[in-house]
Amino acid sequence: MSLRKYRRLAIFAIIINLISIYTALFAVWSAILLVFSIFIINNKESSKRLIDKKIMGFIQTFMLAVFTLIFTVFGVSLFPIMHHVVDAYIPGFYYLFIVLGIIGLISFYYLFIKLFIEAIQVLKMKEI
């Protein structure tokens, strides 16, 4: 996937997650994944030696896995707090925010999976 498509997907995830109160924190993490996509694509297309690309691919894959674990734990722990905010101040939009939150989470994890696959491809590159 090209950097332009990653940008579009990340911006979509940021907007949807910001609109939904429940997953607002995932908007910040989608922006972090956008930064990761820049580094991963630049590493894949660089003219560095193959061993350097593989080392960077390993580091990027490991960082993506650890950060997504952290993102998921914090996102799940923040859900009850945000539920209280929605329930107390804007209960009329409860179902809309739930649906938008689900769409936002799907877009966030789709972006993560695509970036993870891209980083693994960099890790498995073979010399031409």
Question: How are the SSEs placed, and which strands pair?
Answer:
Elements: H1 3-19, H2 24-44, H3 50-89, H4 94-123
Supply database-style keywords.
elongated, 128 residues, mainly alpha
Provide structural commentary.
It is a single chain. 84% of the residues lie in helices and 0% in strands. It has helices spanning 3-19, 24-44, 50-89, 94-123. It is built from four helices and no strands. It has one domain (3-123). Helix 1 (3-19) runs antiparallel to helix 2, helix 1 runs antiparallel to helix 4 (94-123) and helix 2 (24-44) runs antiparallel to helix 3 (50-89). The protein is elongated and about 60 Å long. The mean pLDDT is 90. The protein is mostly helical and 128 residues long.
